[in-house]
Amino acid sequence: MKKETIKQAFIKTLPVMAGYLVLGIGFGVLLSKIGYGPLYAVLMSVIIYGGSMQYVAVSLIDSAASLITVAITTLLVNGRHLFYGLSMLEKYQNIKRKPYLIFGITDETYSLLCQEESKDEDYYFYITILNHSYWIIGGLIGNLIGTLIPFNSAGIEFSMTALFVAIVVEQWLTTKDHVPAIIGFGCAVNCLIILGPEHFLIPTMIAIVLLLIMIRKRGKLNE
């Protein structure tokens, strides 16, 4: 029974594996280029497991960013995971592995688990840990490649940007409400022009969150 559950979870996570291995390798290579070896790649992937935040973390580490900057950036970049966890509390009720299952939620894991209504605890666990392991393995492989094989890694950091561009384009084409995308683009461009590339990220995210909250409140008042 357990083998069958693992098999089902593995088949379900194959598309995630393809993406996580590639993106994890990119992260590992970038981390190696700023002087951090395989142990750090594995530890960051095990403890942070933040996808885009790990890419951002490489830049923050390389620029010796302050702890306050790191904390705020992490909260804003991965803040959506808080809502993922809250929305899964009912599904994870009375599950012993709940702390890890909530920790292990990513965009892709969340989308897979939301499709399943009647699976058992083991299935949820295997989906989560398999996706986590793909990311860890990808980061380790990338770091070893970057450490052992000298090559120009310029442009690898764009892989995560390319992923988000693809997601934005898909959402733009599949939804009629383009206001959030326009707000995000507008805030980013204006903050970039006013504050420059080194200081625009956090103000941009704060502005986007505030504007979206204002629009949401106004929408409720008009209902």
Topology:
Elements lengths: L1 H32 L4 H10 L4 H11 L4 H12 L1 H8 L10 H6 L3 H8 L6 H28 L9 H17 L4 H17 L5 H22 L1
Walk me through what this model shows:
The chain is mainly α. The protein folds into two domains: 156 residues, no CATH class; 49 residues. It contains eleven helices and no strands. The radius of gyration is 19 Å and the shape is globular. The mean pLDDT is 82.
How do you describe this structure in short?
The chain is mainly alpha-helical and 223 residues long. It contains eleven helices and no strands. The termini are far apart.
Defining traits:
globular, mainly alpha, 223 residues
Query: What is the overall number of helices?
Result: 11
Helix content: over 70%
Radius of gyration of CA atoms, rounded to a whole number: 19 Å
Distance from N terminus to C terminus (CA atoms, Å) equals: 50 Å
Q: Overall 3D geometry?
A: globular
Characterize the biggest β-sheet.
Answer: none
Tell how many strands the DSSP assignment holds.
0
